[in-house]
Design a protein that fits this description.
The complex is a heterodimer of chains A (196) and B (126).
Chain A (H helix, E strand, L loop, with lengths): L21 E2 L13 H6 L9 E6 L5 H13 L4 H21 L5 E9 L2 E9 L2 H16 L1 H14 L7 H9 L3 E7 L2 E9 L1
Antiparallel strand pairs in A: 1-2, 2-3, 3-4, 4-6, 5-6
Helix pairs in contact in A: 2-3, 3-6, 4-5, 4-6, 5-6
Chain B lengths: L2 H4 L8 E6 L3 E8 L4 H18 L4 E12 L1 H16 L6 E6 L4 H14 L3 E5 L2
Parallel strand pairs in B: 2-3, 3-4, 4-5
Antiparallel strand pairs in B: 1-2
Classes of the chains: A alpha+beta (196), B alpha/beta (126).
């Protein structure tokens, strides 16, 4: 489906993704960065083209197929330990977007690899309460990833409410990825990056 | 015949689980299904009960070839450790066999040891 460094043809729709999901070569989607300097380190440059793009509805069932595809694609161009790290990001970020995103806008999943940095970026619409919770949780993770990770593990034990948010903690603590969360109006853009 | 050997292993597309008498359960593959508890919690629960019935001193859970799990699947192993912990010393010890090459195992089981370290041990195959 995708070979070498060539981006996929625009509008390719693999059957396993279903009729509502598209893998496309986006023509340079501009990152809507509103945050401070960390965003500049983490987010792709405005001119960067994603090597993989999946556009789908919140709630659609593209998670496993996208994760599987991204993992295989990354394995074709990156070292094993980098692939493992990106694989976690691909799964957890897309799962969050599909589970908690609003149906009013598309979920957009992208993979970038430029200037020795690999990035998974997922964006979705969300309601303000969800956005606030995400921002608070991301701040907690970035302040002390290990502590947040263990805390989320403990929360899993109790089956606690709110729903355990182990995913973001995994990205930073387990996968050692640089996490960046930006919000423009109700659109949430989460990026996770690492050196290749 | 041991109860453990009679526990039916789950069949999922991405993961293979095998029960190897008398006291080893081996997991291979990946767990990416959205709610793995639906397919796998019944198995882990049955394996726990069987290990208790068999009076095992130790149960080895070899996950060294389980290369990816989602966050929900990590909970399966947390729950398992807590069942053993909640047995108040009457249960077996859980011995997880892991691989240093698999990133998720290093961090998850380090954290799990802080939660239930008294009932489990972690060893590495590499």
């Amino acid at each position: 489906m995708v070979a070498g460094d060539q981006p996929p043809k625009r509008g390719v729709t693999p059957s396993r993704f279903g009729s509502k999901a598209k893998i496309t070569a986006s023509a340079g989607m501009q990152p809507r960065v509103s945050g401070p300097s960390s965003a500049e380190r983490c987010a792709p440059n405005p001119g960067d083209r994603p090597l993989v793009t999946v556009v789908c509805d919140a709630g659609s069932s593209v998670l496993e197929a996208t994760h599987s595809f991204l993992t295989a694609y990354a394995a074709s161009r990156l070292r094993s330990h980098v692939v493992q790290r990106l694989s976690v990001a691909a799964y957890e970020l897309l799962a969050n977007a599909l589970n908690y995103g609003s149906v009013t806008g598309d979920v957009v999943f992208e993979f970038f690899h430029a200037r020795s940095v690999a990035t998974i970026r997922v964006s979705n619409e969300a309601i303000p309460a969800r956005i606030q919770k995400l921002i608070e949780h991301a701040a907690r993770v970035q302040e002390n990833a290990e502590s947040a990770f263990v805390e989320e593990m403990r929360r899993s034990v109790s089956g606690g409410i709110p729903h355990p948010m182990l995913g973001l903690a995994r990205l930073v603590h387990e996968a050692r990825l640089m996490l960046d969360v930006n919000v423009v109006d109700r659109r949430v853009v989460v990026s996770a990056s690492c050196s290749d | 015949m041991s109860k453990l050997s009679q526990v039916k292993a789950p069949t999922l597309e991405t993961v293979t689980v095998s029960v190897e008498a008398p006291s080893t359960i081996r997991w291979r593959g990946t767990i990416t299904t959205k709610d793995p508890g639906v397919d796998l919690a019944g198995f882990t629960s049955a394996a726990h009960r069987a290990a208790l019935d068999d009076g095992l001193a130790e149960l080895t859970v070899d996950i060294s070839e389980l290369t990816f799990v989602n966050s929900s699947a990590i909970r399966l192993f947390i729950d398992w450790a807590m069942w053993v912990k909640d047995s108040g010393g009457k249960a077996y010890k859980l011995r997880f066999t892991t691989s240093r090459r698999v990133t998720w195992q290093k961090t998850s089981f380090m954290a799990l040891r802080t939660i239930a370290g008294d009932v489990l041990s972690v060893e590495h195959v590499d």
